[in-house]
Amino acid sequence: MTKLSVNVNKIATLRNTRDIGIPSPLRAAKLCLLAGAHGITVHPRPDQRHIRPSDVTEIAELLREFPHAEFNIEGNPFFDEFVRHCEQTRPTQCTLVPDSLEQSTSDHGWNLVADGDRLRPLIAELKSFGCRVSLFLDPHPKQVPLARELGADRVELYTAPFAEAFEHGPLGEVLEGYRLTAEAAAKHGLGVNAGHDLSLDNLPLLIRQVPQVAEVSIGHALVAEALEYGLPETVRRYLRVLER
After folding, report:
1. What's this model's pTM, rounded to 2 decimal places?
2. Fold of 3-234
3. Would you say the C-alpha torsion 103, 108, 110, 113 has a positive or negative sign?
4. 154 beta partners
5. Maximum distance among all alpha carbons in the chain?
6. Which of 53, 115, 131 is nearest to 85 (CA)?
7. Which of 102, 131, 164, 204 could bond to 94 as cystine, CB 3.0-4.6 Å?
8. 3-state secondary structure 7-64
9. Where are the domains of the chain?
10. Catalytic residue set
11. Of 226 and 244, which is predicted with more confidence?
């Protein structure tokens, strides 16, 4: 079964619009875990626009109460803060994302030809903390052998192009890119994650067509859907999709 990691960044974004501490990312994370989520994802950025350092520490401590759940920290490893978070909290997984300070959200994967030499020692350092390392990639099969050679354990497929094609088409060629990249990852002994713009509507198709996906990280759509269904029920709906 594909695992669900809930990204609580959007909860933190809403919290940060006021100075009264609600809604609480920590409380949201606990509700998701109690509803059956397999893990929690945070993506701290240096400008603290959503997740703050205290959130990372508190959620890491919460995960101790749920020993079968995973903690996933996303971020750009070229920011010193990211490596410090990982060293201090020792998450299950570090997902390395090439986002810049100017980006409102992650919008592309790594160019491993250009960035590989800089990533290699950081991947080794993060693995020395006991963390599984995943690299955020566009669906291009030729990058997969480079990810393996750099020492990564998994790749996370950037799924915004899939979500766009799901809404507006054409879908066939886009899906083929994901299928081929996932097959290449399996061939090279890498696990496959997926994330960005996944929702209750489009997730079933992705899982059917790309069965290698071991984990999805979902935040924006899940929080939006929770406004209609409630947070625990939304998590349960995602789990039913993944079970099928």
Report:
1. 0.96
2. TIM Barrel (3.20.20)
3. negative
4. 134, 191
5. 50
6. 53
7. 131
8. ECHHHHHHHCCCCCCCCCHHHHHHHHHHCCCCEEEECCCCCCCCCCHHHHHHHHHHHC
9. 3-234
10. 43, 74, 196
11. 226
